[in-house]
Amino acid sequence: MASVALYALHAADLVPLRVPAEASDIHALLADAPSGIYSALRSYPGRRFLRLGAHLERCRLSVERAGWSTKFDLHTLVRSIDRAAQAYAGEFRLRLDLLEHPTPRAGVVTQALLALAPHQPVPREIMSKGAHLGLAPAGLCRNQPLVKFTDWVRARSVCETLGVNAYDYLLLDDEQRILEATSANFYVVKQGAIVTAATGILEGITRQIVLELAERAGLELELRRPTFQDLQRADEAFITSSTREIVPVSTVAGTRIGNGRPGPVFERLLTAYQTYAVSHAAPAGALC
Q1: DSSP string for residues in the chain
Q2: Sorting pLDDT into bands at 50, 70 and 90, what band is 12?
Q3: Is residue 207 within 8 Å of residue 185, measured between CB atoms?
Q4: pLDDT digits (tens, 9 = 90+) for 203-249
Q5: How much is the pTM?
Q6: By the 8 A CB rule, do 166 and 133 touch?
Q7: CA–CA separation, 124 vs 5, rounded Å?
Q8: DSSP string for residues in 55-68
Q9: Sign, Cα dihedral of 120, 121, 125, 131
Q10: Rounded mean pLDDT of 133-152?
Q11: Which of 112, 113, 144, 175 has its CA 20 to 30 A from that of 150?
């Protein structure tokens, strides 16, 4: 298995940092990092990325929306990601943190950290049978959904204390409608139409691609927050994220979705997404 890697970005330099003991994924690598804004994604064969430019633009907008003075230098970020990717063996997951304040690390002062760890595909059993989702604790929410704060990674960890064997947990609004999962966007399929929240959620990069592919396929889109009544009448459900692509959902808080198995809309979108990734993923250096 490939190793993990952690870097501080300092001017045009990529400074290796000590890896925390037993850290095996990108979030564990940055568990002690100061408050920041982040983006996480996976690599594809050939050290390529899918819509890296969109991820970096969302980071820039997040810094702006947060009202921070964090310096954003697109050219330096792209070059650093490309160098880290070229030095890594195998496919990986990557997390970029843009810190709120300059922070000393390994003898340099930085406002950007970069973590890489082996890419772990979604388990085959989940892809073939569907994931079980739980409900997040009442009151757990993103205060600014359009801003991907690193503090959210710590806040959502409360779900791990619930004693529920769930793949992810759904966030609800004040009217008990479904917003998204703690680390993914959420969708319900009813009579061939895809229902997914339009507001109060993170604007996922994979979500953007999936909605584009759904429109090209002629699938109907209902951009509204799904209800529990929608769940009870749903034929399918799935979640999306940049590290996991599209994952089928078989149950939500014990409620079986459709026949409890991945459905044809999921299968169709997954095939379209993977085809899209093969043809559109590009090296970070392509943005230079």
Answers
A1: -PPPEEEEEETTEEEE-PPPTT--SHHHHTTTPPSEEEEEEEEETTTEESSHHHHHHHHHHHHHHHT------HHHHHHHHHHHHHT--S-EEEEEEEEEEEEEETTEEEEEEEEEEE--PPPHHHHHH-EEEEEPPTT---SSTTS-BTHHHHHGGGGGGS----SEEEEE-TTS-EEEETTBEEEEEETTEEEE--SSS---HHHHHHHHHHHHTT--EEES---HHHHHH-SEEEEEETTTEEEEEEEETTEEPTTSS--HHHHHHHHHHHHHHHHH-EEGGGG-
A2: confident
A3: yes
A4: 999 999 999 999 999 999 999 999 999 999 999 999 999 999 999 99
A5: 0.96
A6: yes
A7: 27
A8: HHHHHHHHHHHHT-
A9: positive
A10: 95
A11: 175
The SS3 assignment for 262 reads: coil
Residue that the structure tokens 């390529």 belong to: 48
